[in-house]
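User: two proteins, same treatment. go.

Assistant:
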Amino acid sequence: MKLIVGAYASAPSNNTWNKEEESNYYDALKSNDAIDGLEIPFTSKLHSFDEQWYLSMLSARWTYVLTCIPGTMMALNQDASFGIASNQAAGREKAMQFYKGAAEAIATINKQLKKQAVTHVLIHTAPSNPQYRCDKALEKSLLELCSYDWHGAKLLIEHCDAWQPENPFEKGFMDLESELAIVSKVNQESKCGIAFSLNWGQSAIEFQSKLGAIEHIKACNAKQLLNGFIFSGASASSDIYGKWRDSHMPPSLEPLEDPTLEDSELDTQAIKDSINELNSSSLDFIGCKISLLPTSRATEEKIKCIHDTVAVIKNVLENRI
């Protein structure tokens, strides 16, 4: 099982682009032997400012998980019918073309590192508006995606907070029960082996409770379909990170050195509870994706926050019940 960091969420380039500072940031992560790889964001390209630099920065020691959520959200801002679960032909086709681009990006990364560096690709059950979404469209799309050349990467649906009429949502994609049922059917028909990844913060947002992740882990474990798990925090009351917002809030760790994190629902006990519920034998990766706010926070603070979070996850894994 690999320990993965969604480092892009804390990258200095979220505030301002400086190649030297960005290089120092990633070099600091490379120096941490506990980190086995990165979650790489795909928007239709691999880096917002300098893709060739980004490719040259990647370490051959690391493995990579390509996440398509940034590009998916950008596309939804332009077209609310975009997504692999879309019942609108044009919206679904745009999504399929987007994922063809993701497969090409995987080939590019593998070529750069001269190995099968990308082990998983995270896909998402957009669109957000349920009026544009249907089970049959998702089933059709997944069967088609299974025919693509993913250059060795495994397809994982990253479950995001589901659309709910009574609560505001962040992503608002398909509910986990429906996703699990459709994936089970597709796997039976195609032998594709699609599985799932969960994000602690997304589950907490959906349930508006720190118990959300436990419920989602149990549901995935029951189908034996959970392959990845990422820790991002969320808050019920934070003025900085928002109320149940997908802001990748860091955990509240002891001793609490940053008072802005005291409202994080993700703490050491929540990390322990989640890891104890996980089936390690079925997990390919675990990790974190966190972002200190505001984005102007010092790079050194962001690096320390990642190192501290990784250390807690690693310690809990080594001492789990």
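Protein 2:
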Amino acid sequence: MAKRWETFKNKEIIDFANKEYYIDIITNLEVFKKNVKSILFTANIKNENETRVSVNTAFYLARAGFKVLLLDMDFRKRRLSNLLIGNAELNGVTDYFSENLPINDVLYETEIFNIHFIPSGRTKSTAVDLLNRNYLKMLINGLEDIYDYIIINCAPMSFCSDAMLLSSICNGTVLVTKSNFVRRDIVLDNLNILRKSSNEFLGIILNSVDMKEATYGSFGKYKNFGKY
């Protein structure tokens, strides 16, 4: 049984104003991506709000009746853990492997019905270390048997190769991109990398979009998975 821990202390985490856009994302998943259960969320550079996007995607999936796991695999900055639990030091992914802990010792219930959470962990590690030993693949495969969706958050691509590595073991990958914030060539380079490394590249979620300029034409032929 998952442990109970106070999460979502910051009530502003949930984006009710853009509810319809998250519903569109969920609809796309359900209609077009029926076999996608584990989804990696990453960004190009810092401050693109990919962590909040991943949390809100999980929230609206849970509200739609799906059982969802939020999994923090940002082993450097632990952004998802910081957003949900602040500075609390909880056992998580890296401790599960390094100390051979039972899965229930790193699994936490949240106040949101249908959402569980696994922090990144207290023990220092990297995705490279864990992937080289197939640990993460075995963990995610096992969790896919329990949850309808696993929403995975990792560091932006500019910081490390974790996203490229993790995309190879998740069912699908999403690149969160802040409108008019990242240079076009950086986004296109990251798109090419993820298209090659991912089991399935689901597309871009554009955020902070000025709806008066909703075309965001500089992305050319690249189709958006969602925008808000």
